[in-house]
Design goal:
The chain has helices at about 1-15, 25-50, 55-85, 105-130, 135-160, 165-170, 175-195, 200-210, 215-225, 225-250, 255-260, 270-280, 285-305. The termini are close together. The protein has 13 helices and no strands. It has about 300 residues and is mainly α. Helices cover about 80% and strands about 0% of the residues. This is Lysine exporter LysO family protein. It comes from Halomonas rhizosphaerae. Keywords: Membrane, Transmembrane, Transmembrane helix.
Length: about 300
């Protein structure tokens, strides 16, 4: 199992070792990451179509994702509320941005577009099976694994060239405290949810270790545990982001750490405009550091847990 972990981690590490100084090449890498995610999620949908008793399996997927989301979110909200009362981080109404670079509705539409890609994959798989008498389910899984290796290499390169200096990360005590609290409470939630979902302890932890990075967690978990569990991880982390869009405007004035932390890894990208718009510019570096740390931690942690 550890050899499998090394094989999957190797592209991530190799990508992280590559410095990129050309802005056009970096833009190409970013587009490559986005394209790879769409391709793998489409293939995940095709693989889901190959499951026996598809309707029953999808019902199981939805119920398991709901249980996982409820348990982890309860742990997150309790821990982040506790941290908010002790951290002393406050939003600054005087620096609230009237118009964020991206509206929360546009960001939510982007998230839901990924759901549409998975659904399109399921429909495509069913159509192929109906037209040809046999689906390309095994081929889809093989191709998805190859694309996954390329995606990990590109993500490693993104993290290396994100422009986030190590000194800035270490010295931002607010971002560090929020990231550690969110990570620890998520793992506690995954551990509590594992017996409820009839999973091994390490599988429950792995499902919780996406920290909101739904496009990657679903892919990594699905590669190791199959498309059903990959779907559970995907929808659990997607639900986190969607709730974060609603939660941030409501609580950021009184509980800034809770609002920033609940978005998990997305606080450095998708939920950042909403944090900036409602919490002010003082919240931006905290959110970026927290999201970056969680993004850096999530892939190796998921792979490590699944290798146990």
């Amino acid at each position: 199992m550890l050899s499998g972990l090394v094989i999957v981690l190797l592209p991530l590490v190799l990508g992280y070792l590559v410095p990129v100084r050309d802005a056009r090449l970096m833009a190409l890498i970013n587009r490559g990451v986005n394209a790879s995610i769409y391709v793998i999620l489409l293939l995940m949908g095709v693989s889901l179509a190959g499951l026996d008793d598809l309707a029953g399996q999808l019902s199981r997927l939805g119920s398991q994702a709901l249980v996982l989301f409820a348990v982890i979110s309860s742990c997150n909200l309790a821990a982040l509320w506790w941290l908010s009362r002790r951290l002393g981080l406050t939003a600054d109404p005087s620096t609230v941005v009237a118009g964020a670079p991206t509206s929360k509705w546009a960001a939510m539409a982007g998230s839901l577009a990924l759901v549409a890609v998975v659904v399109a994959g399921v429909v495509s798989g069913l159509l192929l099976e109906w037209l040809t008498g046999s689906g390309l389910f095994a081929t889809a899984e093989t191709v998805a694994e190859g694309v996954l290796y390329a995606l990990l290499a590109l993500i490693g390169c993104q993290l290396r060239n994100s422009g986030m200096p190590l000194r800035q990360i270490v010295l931002n005590r607010f971002g560090l405290a929020i990231a550690l609290t969110l990570a620890a409470s998520s793992l506690v939630g995954g551990l509590l949810a594992a017996p409820l979902l009839e999973l091994r302890w390490n599988e429950g932890l792995a499902l919780a270790a996406g920290f909101g990075w739904y496009s990657l967690s679903g892919i990594l978990v699905g590669d190791q545990l199959g498309p059903l569990m990959g779907g559970v991880a995907f929808f659990n982390d997607l639900a986190r982001e969607l709730l974060a869009f609603v939660l941030i405007p409501l609580v950021i004035r009184r509980h800034a750490a809770l609002a920033i932390g609940y978005g998990g890894a997305t606080s450095m990208d998708f939920t950042l405009p909403v944090i900036q718009q409602h919490g002010g510019v003082a919240c931006v570096p905290v959110a970026v550091v927290s999201g970056f740390l969680l993004s850096l931690l999530s892939p190796p942690l998921i792979l490590f847990l699944l290798s146990l």
